[in-house]
Design brief:
Blueprint: E1 5-10, H1 17-29, E2 35-42, H2 52-60, E3 71-74, H3 75-83, H4 87-104, E4 107-111, H5 120-134, E5 138-143, H6 149-165, E6 170-178, H7 183-193, E7 199-204, H8 207-210, H9 214-221, E8 224-227, E9 238-241, H10 246-251, E10 257-262, H11 266-277, E11 284-290, H12 297-304, E12 312-314, H13 319-327, H14 338-351, H15 354-362, H16 371-384, E13 388-391, H17 397-408, E14 413-417, H18 420-429, E15 439-442, H19 450-461, H20 468-476, H21 478-488, E16 493-496, H22 502-513, E17 523-529, E18 534-538, H23 548-564, E19 570-574, H24 585-600, E20 605-610, H25 612-616, H26 618-624, E21 636-638, H27 642-656, E22 659-666, E23 672-674, H28 681-697
Length: 699
Amino acid sequence: MIKKGIYVTNTEKRSGRSAVALGIMKMLLARSEKVGYFRPIISDSPHGVHNNHIATMLSHFELDIEYKETYGFTMSQVVKYKNMGHESRLIDKIIEKYKQLESKYDVVLVEGSDFTGKGISFDVDLNTEIAKNLAIPTVIVCSADSKDLMEAVDNLDLVVRAFAEKDVPVQAAILNRVPEEKREEARSILEGVILPGTNIEVIPEISKLSSPTVHDIYEGIGGKILLGENLMGKQVDRFAVGAMQLRNFLERMTENALVITPGDRSDILMGTMQANASANYPTVSGIVLTGGLEPEPPIMKLIDGLPVAVPMILVDDVTFVAASKIAAIKPSIRPHDIRKIELAIATFEEYVNTDSLLDKFSSFQSNLMTPRMFQYNLVSKAKSDKKHIVLPEGIDPRILTAAVHLVEQNVVNVTLLGNREEVLAHAEKIGLTINEDEINIIDPVTSEHYEDYWRTYYELRKHKNIPEEMAQDAMADVSYFGTMMVYKGHADGMVSGAAHTTAHTIIPALQFVKTRPGVSTVSSCFFMCLDDHVSVMGDCAVNVNPNEEQLAEIAISSADSAKAFGIEPKVAMLSYSSGTSGSGAEVDKVRGATEKAKTLRPDLKIEGPIQYDAAVDPSVGKSKMPDSEVAGQASVLIFPDLNTGNNTYKAIQRETGALAIGPMLQGLNKPVNDLSRGCTVEDIFNTVVITAIQAQEGF
């Protein structure tokens, strides 16, 4: 059973992708009752006009989907996003819309973008990025029409490898529109070049699918339908210009030809109609009358009375211009083209091994996790059980912007701390409107909870001989007040540090929120979102030089954090040596910490000491530690000290462009997280999201 979706894309225009998609949809509906359909990007169309292929899918298969749910963006919107440097927002929205359908249907057929003519690189890169972030089985369709066979094979092979290089394994490669006599040759060549593990399918050229209909012609050139509106679905295999004498024209007529002639050529018009009715001449698909010259009423009356009708269109263009426009029109499959739709499906079923394809789709597994996918999953989880997060630095413009975004996206409930007038004034200064029905603003010293909070703090700290005045001063501080909100349960978590030091954020939490039972070490971890996976890295922000016991706790806390955020924990205790090959105080510390962690949590997969390359590179891991369950596939990386951890995560972030989410504090009874003073709005947004999830998970 296919559990998610299938992505079908192409290598160029007129590949026959739409016909293949029809066949795949029929295949899926034969095995699943609820099948969805989605196009991340569609071509622009006149206002109010639905995309033709979406309309065909919805109507022919009677899919229970609203049209607005079936696509993400138009191509002009895509170009605008890319020009503004907002590609990530584009991908985020596509993931969100796809996931909405995925949650409602057994399987979703996703069809790639139409090719824009901006260059194959632009289109292939765009479709690769979408396929990668959806992480579903991918099918690539390529056309052999008007190409040398080797050229077509090379084109398909090039795109398959381009996808593979971006960690998108192609499950099936389909070479379409191959001359029937070359099908076996094409398959043989493809089997020798296409990457192993990819299903290869070859579909021959079907003339009835590659020819336009009279309706396609009409949509392409416009005009006025004079006759035969109900016959516009007739196939046009070629066109013939009626500019010579009738006897010469009749000799050149062929089956399913579209006749193009000036509207005042009554001889050609009548001869064509008579030839169409005669058993001795080919059938005519339709007639296009040019020059805006409509036949005289007696002629129209005579034609209208003939027993065999032919669709007739009148255009203003002169014959040469009309013929040029018609020659450029390409076929399409439309909702009313029932015979064409059924032929496309029948062709797919005849030439594609659907059982093998289904097996391929059903067995598909992907461990791919892109930064955009990870962020989407985080936000979705946070939304599933909304928490209340307090942000003490209420006048910081980055905090204000992030707060508005969080509330607008319905991720969390937010409280800002600070003087109400100052907060509103700072928001107005940067063009933000704070809706106080959605974002609560509290001034600590005027709050109804102020006295209760300072008295509670006094009771918790009086063993340290603090006077009441010191407790009152502490609760006037936004960090202390926000932490007390979390302690009292008036907020589920706190995020601070954009304008305060780490100590200013963490010390109140250590004083009275304290650590969870069984935990003595508060530590931190980062979620390092690399191109195709997410690693958890700890401790990169808090403990300068942890001892064996602390390092073991950091490893266990980081593994639990990974699991809570949907990452299978495979813990690597990093050192400059792997296994038993090295010695020295530092490597011995890591070795001892590894043993302690394994003893405390035998359920976890933990390896150490191990070098970074052996931890993350499968080939190196297999070479250095062949029997390890962690080597080469570590998802949780524990550094021996802060110097190593902090420098390593920053080096990875800067050199690879990876997204670092965090630091997230671990080990506290309730979630309090610290920001860097150089944080961005996105950093704040992400930290609030992970804080909300910590609150959901109870740590």
